[in-house]
Amino acid sequence: MISSAVGCPMPNLSAEDLRTRLVRDLPGAVQSVSPLKVVPPPAQGHAPAAFVTGDTLVEAARIVDVALYLRDRLNYAYLSDICVVDYLADEIFEIVYRFYTVEGGSSLALKVRVPRENPVVPSLTAHWPGANFHEREAFDLYGIVFVGHPYLHRIYMWDEFEGFPMRKDFPRQGDKYIGEDE
Amino acid sequence: MLKTEELQINIGPQHPSTHGVFRMLVTVDGETVTDLKPVFGYLHRNHEQIAEVNTYLQNMPYTDRLDYFNAMANNQAYAMAVEKMVGIEVPERAEYLRVLMVELTRILNHAGALGFLINDMGAWQTQLAFGMREREKILDLFESVSGARLMCNYFRFGGVARDLPPDFMPRLKDLLVAMPAFVDEMERLLRENEILLQRSEGIGILPKDLALAYSVTGPVLRGSGVAYDIRRAEPYSIYDRLDFDIPVGSVGDVYDRILVRIEEMRQSRRIIEQVIAQLPDAQGGHINPKARQNVRPPVGDVYARVETPKGELGFYLVSDGSSKPYRYKVRAPSFINLTPLGDMCRGYKVADMVVILGSIDIVMGEVDR
Amino acid sequence: MTIEMQRGSVIVMDRRRGKLRAGQGLLQGLKVVWDHWAGSFRTNDNFSKIHGTFTVEYPDERLPMPQAYRNMPVLLFDDESGHELCTGCYQCQRICPPQVIHITQAKDPVTGKMVPAATEFIIEYDACMSCGFCAEVCPFDSIKMDHVYELSTADRVSLTMRKTQLNRPISYYTGIAPDLWAEAQAGAMKKLQGSIKRRPDVIGLAASLTEKIKARRLELAAAGQVAGGGGQEAGVAPAAPAAKLTPEEKAAKLAAMKAAKQAGGAPAPAEAPVELSPADAKAAKLAAIKAANAAKQAGAAPAEAPVELSPADAKAAKLAAIKAANAAKQAGAVPAPVEVPSTPLDAKAARLAAIKAANAAKQAAEQSNNE
Asked: In Å, how far is B114's CA from the nearest CA of chain C?
């Protein structure tokens, strides 16, 4: 059996719909969205506009529940991308999960915010083996710890590497790996 | 029954069949693969952080270097992401030119990928040479329009770098004459060839549900029988005006992936013919808007994706309102398509493992980023 | 099994073996290889053929490069005057993704102010990614992508190219990319005409001069009010000396010779504006697009509004910085009386020996004097 045709008009859920459903079916999973500064406000002049996301913000501990709800109840089974953003000025990491349906259409994004000091989030790899490399990459470059990941090792950098190079406070120049050999 | 001992071997990182600096940590029991871990990062250059230092336009040539086979497709995904964020309207003619280039890219990628796959099977250069020759013609066209064969850097926000040179269309039409003959010939060489069937039928099976759970994309996903093509699933650019079919496999083995790729080349040719027919009527406008050199998107985030020859290439951009991206994330198809490699190889022989890797069609520039 | 969808369908690939018996598939494949082998004795000269050889024996034979081909950036200078088109505006340095362009802006040795020329221009070829952005953003069509691809050296340092190694005559570039150069010329012409139309009095003015212009405009306006209805006519008198002052200063700072042309152009058009246009055409041919336009502007302006002459002049002088030498040549060739105003300016230009532009202008002036 071939999965149903792509391009057929199946109404996609909007982030708004998703939030209402989640509030109804999984109480306590959805967080209210607080605006992000993104960049620290300048010393003088007016600060740039705050970033208020339109996507659904989920409690970190409930992300597996919500993702399974998306997969099993809403048919958003295709986990396309897991991306980490380091909002240094706001002291958080934001992890963006992006889901699609195989029927086609636009995505639903789930966002999870974790504090920078203790970035721990449950792993999705048990349910989506495809999350494996995404999560390893997030661990390697940002130091997000995915609880329950079967093999949470560095994926790009060598195992002995110290620090997480994509973090905004990682020194871009002059760290211990530059200048030793040359 | 003889008691055997498992052995861990490294294939790569410098190995002719690993498609770049890529290492497979294989546990074998005799000749049977019992476990496989892909190890990479040898080409890692922290592309995403380089991008955070550059302005939006400066990243365009860097995207060429992701999947260096398909620079045009990478350009398209990135240009789309920025255009979506800034809200730039692309002139119709520029959209047609983009689709033309991207579909040519798809043909050249599959011609090369199948060649390398047959190379992995041990046929060495036969199919590769034939495929590379057709690829060369397309590269000549790219060179005449963009100035470079591989690192095209052809797309701009709101258009393309320049219009077609006068000798482009005649050569493209010549190429389209050659294309069906080339694809048919390729099919005669590969399809029903007993050696190829032995090496590819029933090898590296990725069932449909597993393919979805592994989030694979592109010909690998379609080879597993899921008719998911972003050009249809979430139409972008002008794909909703073009007729084309989506080939899917039924078993999900290496052979299905070969067949899907051959058919996709035919469909791409079909698209190019429609583009050529519709191009003269397309609205022109400024196809190279130089004013867009320094875009400053409003604060926010955006995700744009395209169907590259290898699968879903997505760019997730976060803007802080400045001229440089705050976060620039590449969702690379080769990287994700590698995830199921261990599962696909388990239980097959070492020689099959090489073929399975070839059938995924990875490019390390994109995997390692 | 096929599923219909909009504008296409899903095809399930047919895995069936055809009517071929065992072994026939192999033979069929061998036939393909045979065809290619047999075809390899002919040359393939056409994209529509799939058989045949189309390789070239590289070091002996070379493929022609398409005009758009880009390898490494080079700088252009004018063939005859040796004047460099680069003004040191830093656009390319700013856009360069790997940051391999390093420019040192020329300074007036007397006043210490920046002048539109580059004393040093370094491109690290070893790190250049050949993206072509520098050529694309250059507002003066000064930096262009070369077609030379054989750059191997034994050491990395020799790939750090200085200005002397980067300089190529315009004729070299027109040789490798005539269409692109024509395009660039047309674009520059259009751009200039657009800005002349839009802002005729301030085009190309250095920021430091806007104050002066503003003051002079006020002065002119005041003069016009005093004179009442005939203000236009009255305006000419104060305008003329002002016109002499500003271009002189500027011309001294930049490259003098363009002003000479203006001075030559201003008196001339009254009786023979027709003669000017062929001169324009020539100037354009010589890549003195902007200068030619300025001349045209100077020629066209006095007919309708003599008041505008002075700013136009000033403007023209500024623009001339780039193609001064050319323009001077033109001016020297067409109207004879030009030489008189050109000499003092020339002397000034000589002071700025450090700047190549000025040098070039001087050379050109000497040529025109000889004529």
From this structure: 15
Asked if C123 and C161 count as a contact pair (C-beta separation under 8 A), the reply is yes
Q: How crowded is residue C22: how many other Cβ atoms within 10 Å of its Cβ?
A: 8
Q: Tell me if chain C has a CB within 8 Å of the CB of B144.
A: yes
Question: Amino acid letter at B125?
Answer: Q
How crowded is the C-beta side of A76, counted as CA atoms within 13 Å? Answer: 25
Q: Given B59, B178, B248, which is nearest C12 (Cβ)? A: B248
Residue C79's CB is within 10 A of a number of other CB atoms, namely 15
Question: Which tokens in the block code for residue A97?
Answer: 């999960």
Residue length of chain C: 371
Two tokens, residue C206:
């250095």
Pairing of strands A92-100, A145-147: unpaired
Q: Can you give the pLDDT at residue B115?
A: 87
Residues B245, C32: C-beta atoms closer than 8 Å: no
What are the per-10-residue average pLDDT scores of chain C (371 residues)?
A: 60 72 78 86 82 85 87 86 82 88 84 81 89 86 87 87 86 87 83 72 50 68 60 35 39 43 39 38 42 45 38 45 46 39 40 46 55 49
Task: Give the Cα separation of C132 and C130 in Å (integer).
Answer: 5
B-chain residue closest to C55, CA distance: B133
Of C47, C66, C96, the CB nearest to B178: C47
Q: In 10 A of CB A145, how many CB atoms?
A: 15
Spatial contact of B56 and B324, defined as CB atoms under 8 Å apart:
yes
Neighbours of C219 (CB within 10 A): 14
Chains B and C form CB pairs within 8 A to the count of 150
Per-residue pLDDT, C274 = 35
**Chain B CB contacts of A135 below 8 Å:** none
ipTM metric: 0.85
CA dihedral B322, B327, B331, B336 (to 10 degrees): 170
Tell me the shortest Cα–Cα distance from B316 to chain A, in angstroms. Answer: 8
What is the model's pLDDT at position B124? 74
Residue in this structure with the two tokens 């710890």, named with its chain if needed: A145
Structure tokens at C15: 């895995």
* CATH number of the domain to which A58 belongs: 3.30.460.80
A132 falls within a domain: no
What is the total count of domains within chain A?
1
Task: Confirm whether A178 is domain-assigned.
Answer: no
pLDDT score, position B102: 92
Which position has the token pair 């963006």? Answer: A96
A48 within a domain of the structure (yes/no): no
Residue numbers of the domain that contains A73: 2-33+53-124
Distance CA B41, CA B22 (A): 8
Nearest to C71 by CA among B65, B148, B146, B155: B148
Question: In this structure, is residue A62 part of a structural domain?
Answer: yes
Partners of A48 on chain B (C-beta within 8 Å) are 299, 320-321
Residue ranges in chain B modelled with pLDDT below 70: 1-2, 285, 289-292
